[in-house]
Amino acid sequence: MPDNSPVSLHVSRDRVLVNLRKRLENPKKVMKQIGVLIQNQAEITFEEQRLGRIRWKRRYPNQGEPFINIAAALRRFNQDRNPLSRHFERRPALIGERHLSRSVRTRSNITLMGTHEVQAGTTVPYADDHQKGATTRQPITDTAKKRIAKFIGSKRKFKIKTTTMRPDGVVTQVKTEATGAMYKKKLEPLLNKTELVTKLNPRPMFGLTKQLAEDIVELVESDLPPPAASRNAPDFPQGPGPVLGGART
After folding, report:
1. Are residues 99 and 1 in the same domain?
2. What distance in Å separates the CA atoms of residue 47 and residue 26, rounded to the nearest whole number?
3. pLDDT for 168 beyond 70
4. How many domains does the chain have?
5. Sign of dihedral through CA atoms 51, 53, 58, 62?
6. How far apart are CA 31 and CA 247, in angstroms?
7. Residue 156 domain flag
8. Separation CA 157–CA 177 (nearest Å)
9. Does some domain include residue 136?
């Protein structure tokens, strides 16, 4: 999903033409580094909860207080377990078990597609649902219903954190106490259903933003120092693979 504003790439013609010609004749090195830039940007989206100017929506943006991540809680109920403390936080989104956030920085997910094209992304099966938005369905088992009934009937207190993020990115956390009974109004309807249908808001991780375009131009114009990688960088395989982002020269 692209950024909201148009992006143009311009490479100055003076000092870089000779080097640029050499690189285009054998662009493997620069294409690998562009793949790293794509992944670095994707990793930042989880920290900033936005891709460029596209700000991610918080979990269940229309749900009133007290908040609970119903879909995540149901996964736990189906396992005959109670929700975790993070299931009562609106933010940060897409950071639960961290499978997705870790996968976008896995360097083995950078693939050279021929001579002048690179793709970088993630192999997590549900990544595209979050990139573009989707509708998901979860079964509500008898095990879950028994656990839900017990949970919403309990007045035993447990500790939770409420997290808010201001438009300027400042995150505030407040610790408080809750009881299962507080969530009766939101969970009790599940007892009369066989499945939960959830509409996922798109939260794009990959796309060409102004910053990424500028970083690519700077990389091409430079002597190709490796971009600062925040994590380990294993080998870059060649050949096709599941991806979400890409670049072509």
Report:
1. yes
2. 35
3. no
4. 2
5. negative
6. 8
7. yes
8. 6
9. no
